[in-house]
């Protein structure tokens, strides 16, 4: 097991706590306060300020090696394809058994989709990249130094899913968080195989775009 310095531990704890704040349903002037998004900002800052604790300066985030990382790792390609299957399956099941699900998702991501389509897609690209740097290149990578990678992926995905919590019908909320967890785990597996958040960002961003068009 590798050592984790105190600064990294503090960042990990802050991210974890922030991801849980959506559960509190804090409201200001009648509007729900979404503090969990700050966890992404904290994670991005944490990655770049603690990068020296990794073996190389670009560890976990190297845009130059995306093609090589996928080419040399068939498992990473499979894990990168599965989120698209997950999105389609989630939508098909929801349309048949939970017709209110799409409205729940539209409400949850309304702050993203309030502008025109191209701006929405661009914003989604930036946000998903931030999430991958924060939750995969920092949180998952750092926690893997102390616990087995599968437990790190599970912990990361639980917190990531809870950070997407939005109040509503229990069945719909649970269904939403289940698929967020599954997708997060798949992104985590892509990252585990490639050690590159750019590689996990590609399926994350494209799967979110697909979901946007499906709803």
* Class derived from helix and strand content: mainly alpha
Q: Return residue spans where pLDDT drops below 50 for at least 5 consecutive residues.
A: none
Rg measurement, Å: 17 Å
* Strand content bin: under 5%
Strand line-up in the sheet with most strands: 1-2
Largest sheet: 2 strands, antiparallel
- Count every beta strand, where a strand is a DSSP E run of 2 or more residues: 2
Rough shape? globular
**Total of helices:** 9
Task: Please estimate the helix content.
Answer: 55-70%
Q: Order of helices and strands, N to C?
A: HEEHHHHHHHH
Q: What report would you give on this structure?
A:
The protein has 9 helices and 2 strands; from the N terminus they run αββαααααααα. It has helices at residues 6-20, 38-49, 66-71, 74-97, 101-108, 117-143, 149-162, 170-194, 197-214, and strands at residues 27-28, 31-32. The protein has one domain (6-214). With 215 residues, the chain is an all-alpha fold. It starts with 5 loop residues before the first helix and ends with a helix. 69% of the residues lie in helices and 2% in strands. Helix 2 packs across helix 6 (117-143), helix 7 (149-162) runs antiparallel to helix 8 and helix 8 (170-194) packs antiparallel against helix 9. The model has no long low-confidence stretch (mean pLDDT 91). Strands 1-2 form a two-stranded antiparallel ribbon.
List its salient traits.
2 strands; mainly alpha; 215 residues; single chain; two-stranded antiparallel sheet
């Amino acid at each position: 097991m590798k050592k984790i310095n105190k600064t990294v531990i503090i960042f990990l704890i802050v991210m974890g706590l922030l991801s849980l704040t959506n559960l509190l349903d804090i409201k200001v002037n009648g509007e729900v306060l979404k503090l969990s998004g700050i966890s992404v900002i904290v994670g991005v800052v944490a990655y770049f300020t603690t990068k020296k604790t990794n073996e190389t300066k670009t560890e976990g985030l190297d845009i130059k090696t995306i093609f090589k990382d996928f080419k040399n790792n068939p498992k990473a390609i499979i894990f990168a394809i599965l989120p698209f299957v997950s999105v389609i399956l989630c939508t098909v099941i929801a349309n048949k058994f939970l017709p209110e699900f799409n409205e729940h998702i539209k409400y949850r991501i309304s702050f993203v989709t309030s502008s025109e389509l191209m701006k929405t897609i661009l914003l989604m690209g930036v946000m998903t990249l931030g999430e991958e740097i924060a939750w995969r290149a920092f949180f998952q990578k750092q926690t893997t130094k102390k616990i087995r990678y599968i437990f790190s992926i599970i912990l990361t995905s639980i917190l990531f899913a809870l950070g997407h919590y939005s109040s509503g019908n229990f069945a719909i909320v649970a269904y939403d968080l289940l698929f967020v967890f599954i997708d997060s785990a798949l992104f985590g597996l892509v990252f585990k195989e490639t050690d590159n958040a750019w590689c996990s960002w590609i399926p994350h961003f494209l799967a979110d775009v697909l979901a946007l068009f499906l709803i």
